[in-house]
Design a protein that fits this description.
By secondary structure, the protein is an alpha+beta fold. The protein has one domain (about 50-300): Oxidoreductase, molybdopterin-binding domain (Sulfite Oxidase, Chain A, domain 2, Alpha-Beta Complex). Helices cover about 15% and strands about 20% of the residues. It is built from 8 helices and 12 strands. It has helices at about 15-35, 60-65, 80-85, 110-115, 140-150, 185-190, 245, 295, and strands spanning about 95-100, 105-110, 120-125, 130-140, 155-160, 180-185, 195-200, 205, 215, 230-235, 270-275, 285. Strands 3, 4, 7, 8, 9, 11 and 12 form a 7-stranded mixed sheet that branches. Strands 2-1-10-5-6 form a 5-stranded mixed sheet. The longest helix is centred in the first third of the chain and has 17 residues, at about 15-35. The chain binds ligand MTE. Ligand MTE binds next to loops.
């Protein structure tokens, strides 16, 4: 497929129809929630219809969110994803839904998004590396999709897989991680209303470096759980393997809930640096469950979170 990049063309001209339709539904979804003005521009600070799950903390800029990334498929440096992810083809895109579901199959992106109400969710993202951002995602609750495909009674976990395409993802030609990147959630975590499949940010479609065209966002867990560019979702009975746990089981557990009291093997998790605050900005305290304790602590009742890391 060739790429047309002449600046005189309109956005729709240079955008594959699927993505365009996707963007249109993004906008339609936002207009429906009132988070978008009629001119199709994101309403300032979503004051029109704030999601009860959104934070009102200052958002990171689009530039910060799209130029300081972890997406090891494109290399280990924070600048690599922006530099190299243009090579990833995101149209056509399909997601295979497999395992313990009533309607397994390969769904194209439009079908995955069908009837799922899109919302803007302004979430904190806390990376395990002790930095954080505030990101205005656009997405839909994963529970909506899971309910639509019908979760069977035996299912206890949800496994996710990222695109494996080494010819487009240069990092996959290096042994940084075992490819493809995989992640997983317990079924109740996956069904929680805070857990979304994000298809955009800042009122527009998802940039490649942030996990286009569809990625998971689980705001109370370290960022590496929020797997990008998802091509497969499998309902399983057993706890699925996860990439960072495979790479270093001593340092990365399955749960990986943000927890200021449980340090990483090599650094403290008690504080974090907000990206964009400047090199000498004060570190801020890390909050239990990244500030979402009221919503999610019930999921972990009876568990010892210093052991089940
Ligand atoms: N998903 C894939 N497939 N590959 C990755 O390397 N990095 C994770 C997560 N999802 C990663 C991934 C990490 S460590 C973080 S902090 C977040 O993506 C970063 O998301 P962002 O770049 O959109 O801020």
């Amino acid at each position: 497929m060739h790429r047309r990049t002449k600046p005189t063309l309109t956005w729709a001209d240079v955008t594959p129809r699927d993505v365009f339709m996707n963007r249109r539904s993004v906008i339609a979804g936002l207009a429906a929630t009132g988070a978008m003005t009629l001119a199709g521009r994101p309403a300032d600070a979503v004051s029109a219809a704030p999601s009860k799950f959104s934070t009102d903390e200052p958002k990171n800029t689009f530039e910060e969110i799209t130029s300081y990334n972890n997406f090891y498929e494109f290399g280990p440096d924070k600048a690599d994803p922006k530099k190299y992810s243009k090579a990833m083809t995101t149209d056509p895109w399909s997601v295979e839904i497999a395992g313990l579901v009533d309607k397994p199959g390969t769904y194209d992106l439009a079908d995955v998004m069908k009837d799922q109400p899109l919302e803007e969710r302004i979430y904190r993202l806390r990376c395990v590396e002790a930095w954080s951002m505030v990101i205005p995602w656009i997405g839909f609750e994963l529970s909506g999709l899971l309910n639509r495909v019908g979760v069977q009674p035996g299912a206890k976990y949800v496994a996710f897989e990222t695109l494996y395409r080494p010819d487009e993802m240069r990092g996959q030609r290096m042994p940084i991680l075992k490819w493809p990147y995989v992640e997983g959630l317990r079924l109740d975590e996956a069904m929680h209303p805070l857990t979304i499949m994000a298809t955009g940010l800042y009122g527009d479609e998802m940039p490649n470096q942030n996990g286009a065209p569809i990625r998971l966002v689980v705001p109370w867990k370290y960022g590496f759980k929020s797997i990008k560019s998802v091509v497969k979702i499998t309902l399983t009975e057993d706890e699925p393997p996860t990439s960072w746990n495979i790479a270093n089981p001593r340092e990365y557990g399955f749960y990986s809930n943000v927890n200021p009291k449980v340090d990483h093997a090599r650094w403290s998790q008690a504080t974090e640096r907000r990206i964009g605050g400047g090199l000498f900005s004060k570190k801020r305290p890390t909050l239990m469950f990244n500030g979402y304790a009221d919503e999610v602590s019930g999921l972990y009742e009876g568990m010892d979170l210093t052991k089940d890391i």
